[in-house]
Design goal:
It is a single chain. The chain is mainly beta and 405 residues long. 4% of the residues lie in helices and 55% in strands. Strands 1, 2, 5, 6, 7, 8, 9, 16, 17, 24, 25 and 29 form a 12-stranded mixed beta sheet that branches. Strands 10-11-12-15 form a 4-stranded antiparallel beta sheet, with no helix packed on it. Strand 11 and strand 12 form a beta hairpin.
């Protein structure tokens, strides 16, 4: 439902356009194939004989489709003959009957079972702001148009199946060492996207606890390491035009979120980083506390050689130390173009457009070794928040040539 207010109401002269909108919708989503009927899995043949095994996930013929109910409200306004425009939206979505795989006792013959029961609330705001700081009256004069595209979203787990308080829907590890895996765990009342794992043992004041000169590491895998979702994303697009010359550039800003780096695990744990250079000749006294003979925490004073210290500090079981801020600011694209008019004669309308294009030219982020804009593929799951020995991002340059007929 929408209404263009400016078409029937008298508004201040500064407002050239005003539109209000409101919508509500409800949609359903089926469970994955083979979730309601038990099936057999085909394995590698043995001596040309086909092999099949029973699925280890128990199907549920009573599964219901998940239902998402959403409401959205917004407005679009243009001011001063379209010199400024704003398109603003706020939304709220509630999803219920999400299908999850609950663990079962091994004695049942299955490892998991499909059930309904999870609910998720998803809400946020979005806006697109258009501004024209410069707009010459002469068509060949200087013109500058810019566009801001902002998005902020929070997903919260509001319910889980009866009898459970947390649900691990994915985990990522190396060489199947699940005792040090990153756990993607949903808990009621917390944001979707929280990652759990092991980290430093700390005293009540938050100091790292040392034993024999090296940090102690937890083993319960229940430490909150961070959330992979950004706090907000903002794109800034600019277009400047003067006579036949165009200059376009795009900045992309992602603020907040965390990610775990397997690249840094290998580099730091293997002593191949400049961060492991200090103390190689003198030894290291780690900054933190240790427990004395009376059971009290005192400043750590035990010196160990660099190899012992760094292998303990950058221990592969320590997920916390390889977590990084996923914020970044990128110059996503820069384009300089020139228009050649009347390329087939003075009376022709054809134009030639020649442009120099550069992409991913500049990046500002916490970790300079890797690109935080990365994903991990685990089976059929695409998991943000994990960087797994990824290739470096590429900076590219090119030439674009186009003809308009």
């Amino acid at each position: 439902m929408s209404a263009i207010i400016s078409s029937w109401a008298k508004l201040p002269s500064a407002i050239s356009y005003l539109k209000l909108r409101l919508s509500a919708a409800q949609v359903g989503r089926d469970a994955d194939p083979y979730s309601i009927t038990n099936t057999f899995l085909t394995n590698t043949p043995f001596n040309n004989y086909p092999l099949t095994t029973a699925n280890n996930v128990l199907a549920n013929i009573n599964l219901k489709p998940s239902i998402t109910t959403s409401t959205e409200a917004g407005f679009e306004i243009r001011l001063w003959n379209d010199l400024v425009g704003l398109d603003f939206t706020v939304y709220n979505e509630n999803t219920r009957n999400e299908v999850v795989k609950l663990p079962l006792p091994v004695s049942s013959g299955y490892t998991n079972a499909f059930v309904n029961g999870a609910s998720i609330n998803n809400k946020g705001v979005e806006f697109v702001l258009n501004i024209s700081p410069l707009r010459a009256s002469n068509p060949d004069g200087l013109r500058w148009d810019m566009n801001f595209n902002f998005g902020h979203n929070i997903s919260t787990v509001t319910a889980l199946p009866a009898g459970i308080t947390s649900y691990t829907y994915a985990q990522v590890t190396q060489y199947d060492r699940y005792y040090r895996a990153i756990q993607y765990t949903a808990k009621v009342g917390e944001r979707l996207g929280n990652m759990y794992g092991n980290g430093f043992v700390r005293d009540p004041q938050g100091n790292i606890v040392y034993q024999n000169g090296v940090p102690l590491i937890t083993s319960s895998q229940n430490m909150l390491l961070g959330n992979y979702n950004p706090d907000f994303v903002l794109g800034w697009y600019n277009q400047l035009q003067y006579k036949h010359i165009n200059l376009d550039f795009v900045w992309d800003w992602h603020q907040g979120g965390k990610f775990y780096s397997y690249t840094e695990l290998g580099v730091l744990n293997g002593g191949m980083s400049v961060e492991t250079l200090p103390g190689r000749e003198t030894g290291i006294v780690g900054k933190g506390v240790m427990m004395d003979n009376t059971g009290k925490y005192v400043p750590n004073n035990v010196k160990v050689d660099a190899a012992t210290y760094y292998l303990g500090y950058y221990n592969a079981n320590n997920n916390e130390v390889f977590m990084y801020n996923a914020s970044y600011l990128k110059l996503r694209e820069l384009r300089i173009a020139y228009h050649f008019s009347h390329i087939f004669g003075r009376n022709s309308h054809q134009e030639l457009r020649l442009a120099l294009v550069g992409r991913n030219l500049v990046e500002f982020t916490q970790n300079k070794d890797i690109d935080p804009e990365t994903l991990t593929l685990r089976g059929q799951q695409i998991l943000p928040g994990i960087e797994f020995l990824s290739l470096p991002s590429t900076r590219s340059f090119g030439i674009s040539l186009g003809i308009s007929l």
